[in-house]
Amino acid sequence: MEAEQIRRIVEAALLASDGPLTVANLVKLFAPGELDEDNASKQVREVLKHLEAEAAERGVELKRVASGYRFQVRQELSAWVSRLWDEKPPRYTRALLETLALVAYKQPVTRGDIEQVRGVSVSQNIMRTLLERDWIRVVGVKEVPGRPALYGTTKAFLAYFNLKSLDELPPLAEIRALIEPQIVAEEEAEATNPAPAGDAENRGVEGEGGEAPADGEDGGITAHVDLPEEAAADTPASAEVVQLHTSGSNPAS
Prior knowledge:
Layout: H1 3-16, H2 23-27, H3 40-54, E1 60-65, E2 68-73, H4 78-81, H5 94-106, H6 111-118, H7 124-132, E3 136-141, E4 149-153, H8 155-160, H9 172-192, H10 231-234
Antiparallel strand pairs: 1-2, 3-4
């Protein structure tokens, strides 16, 4: 098959897919004999490099994330493109941001580990939100009494924040700089509008329940979950972590 036709097929597949595609995914699109049998993957990688270069001056870019390649809108254009949607992106609280950061930087961790660092118990709503968004997952259990669940980040987490791997995480000091302004804003808001008695001090996503002081490690999930072979290398997040509380999901990984 001619190189130009291969390029068009790969480009069309990337545009049609609802998620990132790996080189292996793209190779499978072609019937036997349509690609060089011994260098099929190399051919596809060359096409991807060509597409990446072609998009250099366009409003979209070909981005490689932990789970493959995808076309995505350039971050600097998000202010305009986001006007296509009426709903505003969810605003995450300090508690959720801190919990996610601790999982990302200290994984694998238990809820008890997170509570020990933060000094308050982790709201079940926060853990549920992170699990439902597929940003964290249970990767095993800690062999201590109660066998609490161990949590780690996912490829979806890396893809959301435009990361290939956890090695691309920004320094923890940068994350702290992002969260501290929100802490000040929340404290000022609480001072102006005190929360009703019984309302939690921190919420995960607007409207969710909060936390209470920690008094020990949570029992967590007791069923053992095997860690996939590729988890260590591919559990993938970026300086794009800034987007965590400023923009919505960005289909790119």
